[in-house]
Amino acid sequence: MKTPFAHEIETTLLPILSSQDRGWENILVEQFQQPPGEARCLHRNEHTICLSLASRPVRLQQIQGDKIYTGLYAKGDISITPAKTPFFARWHADDSYLQIRIASSFIHKVATEAIDINAGGLELQSEFRTRDRQIESLGMMLLSELKQENFGGKLYIDSLANILAVHLLRQYSTAKSNLEIYKGGLPERQLLRVVEYINEHLSQDIKLADLAQLLGISQFHFSHVFKQSVGIAPYQYLLQQRIERAKQLLKQTDRTIVDIALECGFSSHSHLSKQFRQLTGMTPRTYRAQ
Q1: What are the tens digits of pLDDT across the range 55-78?
Q2: Fewer beta carbons under 10 A from the terminal one: N or C of the chain?
Q3: How many domains does the chain have?
């Protein structure tokens, strides 16, 4: 079965890390380390961002459609290739980079729901060797998540994907954006509804779309007004609540830490222990003993 991020007309390059089997929706993140070589690709349904991770500048020749660029790429430099644009690259030294592919259908959805752009005429601009601190920061957060064990789950990845989509639309879209930011947070009734839903589904991998759908607003706007109301992002609140539930079970039951981890939405004993230590300064075993 063809996945949403299946390769189309692409030189076979194998990533050292990939989110392909992580269950991430709308976004594919892969880290590459390659010897000198070349590659070509055409992604019809995804926009592609490449973020250089190279320790030393690497000379590249790049062709996007009918546009050509030759020059040095240093760590932090970014290129953006819109969907349906043929891409070719040749590099002359060992290269390391992060590739982010974000579904064009998702960009269109964010455009219509969050930014009030007519998605029918929506296009992203090609970029060679540009600097963008927000994309670089988001890329490094995605890479960090790729390297470790399910830190924030789907809610965290959904949040980063939405922020990236809005940023691309605001900074690199050919259409004018009109992003209306809701102010004042959520009404108490709506906030209670969201909080109750989270508490009832702590063992599940909650998605940002699930929470936004409760209130009938876009995922981006939900993240914004939730943080205004609670003071932290939805994925941070979810993690806090999972740790609080784990604390209760550790003190009030004699269930194994593995069982408690799974009931609270953690993937394993080690996943719970890592997050528990970060938030409380001690391991679950030490907390139970006290």
Answers
A1: 999 999 999 988 999 999 999 999
A2: N
A3: 3
